[in-house]
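User: For my dataset I need records formatted as: sequence, then structure tokens, nothing else. Please produce one.
Assistant:
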Amino acid sequence: MVQLRYHCDDCGKTYIGQALNTSMLCLCTPPKKILGKPQQTPLSDELLEMLDIGSASKMRAVFCQRWGIPNKSHTTHGSNFSSNQRVVDLILDIVAPVTGGLRTNVRNLIISTFKYDIDSKEMIG
């Protein structure tokens, strides 16, 4: 069942629960109707980990080999390619050009490893 988050910016009250047939009525002054938004699970600490360029390159090689994706990284780039990167951004960068059956297989592997869906860009469960 889909969980929705109803939040009033005026009074700060929040309700998270089953989708309501209509909007929720907040009883702040003045009362107002609030539309629910899908509740999203925050990304895991593992996906938010920051990697320096060396660690990111090594992790890219491991992921590409594990997922059967050609590693398109280059050993040298300009300075705009040398900043830190989150694991989730690295994953999305690797899978961006992947299509068809390979994408489905890779998506399932990422869900089983990280509980993260590369298509919806949300945590699963």
